[in-house]
Sequence to fold (182 residues):
Amino acid sequence: MFNKITEGVESGDLKRLVEPNIHIDEFKSKMGDDKDICVISYRLHGKEPGFDMINFFEIGYDYVLDADVSSGELEDGDYVVFVELERSKLLPQQIMELTTDLLNLTEQEIDEWTVKYRGKSSYTELTQENLARIIPLTPQEYESRFGSDQIDSLKAAAGVEVKTKAPKNDYTESLRVLAGII
Fold:
């Protein structure tokens, strides 16, 4: 009879492999509605280190609902690790715990890390206070911020006229110019 030998990750195993940036709510949840589940993502160099990261998160934290690595590589050869957490008031604390514990594997410092929230063009310093400020922490907050997007997409899918106007900003104005609207 053979015994299965398992090997965990050790300090420094992911050194120079994980980008010090977190993206939040830029991807759809596999586990449920986006209003209930927050998806955080980490970018790293290589698929195999992604599996190590998934094991690290899924085995070490009971509040991690699911973790996965992208099936394909990005244009530059990098991969993305997705971590799904329940949307709650504990989310900023949980994200900080995951990331600070990950520092043992990456040998980075927390002050090197930044965060970018869905739809934002710039990164913000990764702190628990910034996370609490930028992330909708309840399903109600999420729906009040993004609910109309979901309603508009349902209307469009059903063939119902959508009367919502896009906000005026540099991006939407450039789309209007390209479309010949203005």
User: Anything to note?
Assistant: Residues 1-6 have pLDDT under 50 and may be disordered.
